[in-house]
């Protein structure tokens, strides 16, 4: 069995995120009933993002190395003001902001990015080994969307 470095794992995670939901990749066959799944693979690494829902949603991202799970992240997001904001707007804001973040080669680190659909914020603690985070969108200084996430290495 070969191995990988922390930097190789981090780079693959950024690459996979950029080439899956954010890259508007097509969905694959769902791994669970009612799930939406997006997969990405390069070499010995494979990535699966599997989520349920739309405006309020829950999901998990898993990275496999040589077929074994080595890293995962769970997330839950929701629209806070459906009377003035919707899933399409939040999706556009998140895709715009995360595209910019991933192009910098990062996925962890605090960010504030203005988009046409509101101001995107992300704050987190930790590193690829273990982390927690919170992202939200403000429209006219009111929080209209938020998402909590956490994850890290998987060890057997």
What sequence of helices (H) and strands (E) makes up the elements?
Answer: HEEEEHEEEE
Approximate strand percentage: over 45%
Task: Report the average pLDDT across residues.
Answer: 94
Task: Evaluate the radius of gyration.
Answer: 15 Å
Principal-axes geometry comes out as globular
Strand count, sense and barrel status of the largest sheet are: 8 strands, antiparallel
Helix content: 10-25%
The total of helices stands at 2
> What is the number of strand segments?
8
Whole-number total of structural domains: 1
Query: By helix and strand content, what is the structural category?
Result: alpha+beta
The side-by-side strand order for the widest beta sheet comes to 1-2-3-4-8-7-6-5
**Spatial gap, N to C terminus:** 15 Å
Low-confidence stretches: none
Report what the structure shows.
This protein has two helices and eight strands, in the order H-E-E-E-E-H-E-E-E-E. The protein is α+β, with helices and mostly antiparallel strands and 156 residues long. Strands 1-2-3-4-8-7-6-5 form an eight-stranded antiparallel sheet. It starts with 5 loop residues before the first helix and ends with a strand.
């Amino acid at each position: 069995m070969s191995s990988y470095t922390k930097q190789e794992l981090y780079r693959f995670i950024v690459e996979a995120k950029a080439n899956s939901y954010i890259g508007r990749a097509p969905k694959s066959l769902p791994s669970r009933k009612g799930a939406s799944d997006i997969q990405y693979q390069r070499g010995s690494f494979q990535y699966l993002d599997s989520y349920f829902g739309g405006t309020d949603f829950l999901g998990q991202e898993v990275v496999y190395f040589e077929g074994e799970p080595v890293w995962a992240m769970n997330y839950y997001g929701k629209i806070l003001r459906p009377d003035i904001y919707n899933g399409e707007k939040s999706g556009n804001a998140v895709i715009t902001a995360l595209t910019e973040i991933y192009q910098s080669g990062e996925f962890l680190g605090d960010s504030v990015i203005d988009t046409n659909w509101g101001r995107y914020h992300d704050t987190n603690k930790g590193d690829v080994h273990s982390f927690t985070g919170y992202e939200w969108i403000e429209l006219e200084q009111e929080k209209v969307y938020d998402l909590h996430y956490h994850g890290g290495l998987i060890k057997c």
